[in-house]
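Supplementary Methods. Inverse-folding protocol.

Structures were first reduced to a discrete structure-token string of length 464. This string, shown here, constituted the complete conditioning input.
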């Protein structure tokens, strides 16, 4: 009887009992929360999973959602060749002591829902970094992680009724609703939910905090290295032009006709394509064409991101948010590999190089870009060597995409009387995934916040 079984509103699920140090944790891996978003359901909002008979075996981590290969560092790439479009599953870890199916739990544990990062293009809840078993063993919480649709399949958009986009955010919203309905059976308290996320996950958590559709589904928020204002990075990647390019690249768009008269055919064609080959074609497209971001101003988020009224209704009680010391380094390193001429240009005229990269990236004019460059690099008479150029470029990027968005969100939350806690993570772990020159890089904090490497329990290793 060591197999934990829990009743959800779709049916019974069986998990695995695991030993973590001196404690025992029940893990339910790969519980379906939506119908597979394939065929007719591709690009549509998720449909809640149909009930099943018997007991669903939730004992293996779900497959990742389809995504492009991700360059990790220098010549290491993460490739998801066995990803699946049938990927809408969640994982629940709970302390064993909490309760059994027979007697409902008197004492409910607080719940954490974690949204993984990856710029809305990549990521997977099964990464070892996100494994919270140790966290649950030490802290008596119920912990939920999940997969949501990414890249083209999660965020392709026309910003019209036929193709509104943001289906990846609707996937997340369905998970929040699933937790509200089911978490009590796992010993969790549906009224004590903390929504946490890192990078794109932090951005997502902030969008749920003001989406009318996610209202009241959580009480506290944790944003690690990402708030909705970080979306300034995705502002240029939008709309019909983007859609037409993608459809054209995938062979579903006839350039001789206008979009309106062929829209139905285009959508039918896009829904018929094999997911694996879609991503293969996309992988060889121009890098700007590979990027699909959430859209703002639709039903999910019916406000302008940078308008005051969007933010005067933050609906949560407490927030912890913060950044790592060197947020920008990883991105500048990746830019250099994706724009081969950047290295040469940085070496010959670094001010010009940074100016021309920033403008399209943040959707600003060249003159605005030039003002930023002068503010960070000093006047034309100030000279820098290549190492400081890289450092300053990283700082501009880190400030624009992470540090300033975090400060702005913290200020707004605090001004509304929300308990606001801000952190800065400045410790470079000996086991960082990144080369030394990246410093205290993006994602370095996750093993600490999740306790996902057992040996970091040894607190003597936290000191310098």
């Amino acid at each position: 009887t060591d197999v934990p079984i829990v009743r959800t509103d779709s049916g019974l699920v069986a998990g695995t009992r695991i030993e973590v140090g001196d404690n025992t944790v029940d893990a339910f891996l790969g519980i379906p929360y939506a119908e597979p978003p394939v065929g007719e359901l591709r690009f549509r909002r998720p449909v809640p999973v149909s009930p099943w008979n018997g007991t669903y075996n939730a004992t293996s981590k779900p497959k990742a959602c389809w995504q492009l290969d991700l360059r990790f560092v220098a010549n290491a790439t993460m490739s998801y060749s066995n990803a699946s479009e049938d990927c809408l599953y969640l994982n629940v870890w709970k302390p064993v002591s909490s309760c059994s199916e027979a007697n409902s739990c008197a004492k409910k544990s607080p719940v954490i829902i974690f949204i993984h990062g990856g710029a809305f293009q990549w990521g997977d809840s099964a990464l070892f970094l996100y494994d919270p078993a140790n966290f649950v063993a030490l802290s008596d919480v119920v912990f939920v992680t999940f997969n949501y649709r990414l890249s083209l399949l999660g965020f392709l958009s026309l910003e019209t009724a036929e193709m509104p986009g943001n289906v990846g955010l609707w996937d997340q919203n369905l998970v929040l609703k699933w937790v509200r309905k089911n978490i009590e059976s796992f010993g969790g308290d549906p009224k004590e939910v903390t929504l946490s996320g890192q990078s794109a996950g932090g951005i997502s958590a902030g969008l749920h905090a003001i989406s009318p559709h996610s209202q009241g589904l959580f009480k506290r928020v944790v944003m690690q290295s990402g708030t909705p204002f970080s979306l300034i990075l995705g502002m240029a990647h939008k709309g019909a032009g983007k859609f037409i390019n993608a459809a054209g690249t995938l062979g579903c768009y006839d350039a001789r006709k206008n979009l309106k008269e062929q829209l139905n055919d285009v959508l039918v064609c896009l829904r018929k394509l094999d997911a694996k080959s879609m991503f293969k074609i996309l992988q060889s497209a121009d890098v700007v064409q590979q990027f699909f971001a959430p859209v703002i101003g639709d039903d999910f988020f019916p406000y302008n991101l940078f308008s005051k009224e969007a933010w005067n209704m933050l609906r949560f009680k407490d927030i912890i948010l913060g950044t790592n010391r060197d947020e920008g380094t990883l991105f500048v390193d990746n830019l250099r590999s994706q724009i081969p001429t950047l290295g040469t240009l940085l070496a010959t005229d670094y001010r010009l190089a940074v100016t021309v990269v920033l403008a399209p990236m943040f959707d600003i004019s060249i003159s605005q870009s030039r003002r930023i460059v002068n503010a960070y690099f000093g006047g034309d008479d100030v000279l820098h060597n290549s190492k400081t150029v890289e450092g300053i470029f990283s700082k501009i990027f880190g400030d624009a995409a992470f540090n300033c968005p975090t400060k702005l969100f913290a200020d707004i939350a605090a001004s509304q009387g929300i308990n606001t806690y801000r952190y800065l993570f400045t410790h470079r772990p000996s086991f960082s995934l990144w080369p030394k020159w990246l410093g205290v890089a993006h994602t370095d904090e996750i093993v600490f916040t999740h306790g996902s490497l057992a040996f970091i329990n040894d607190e003597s290793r936290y000191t310098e």
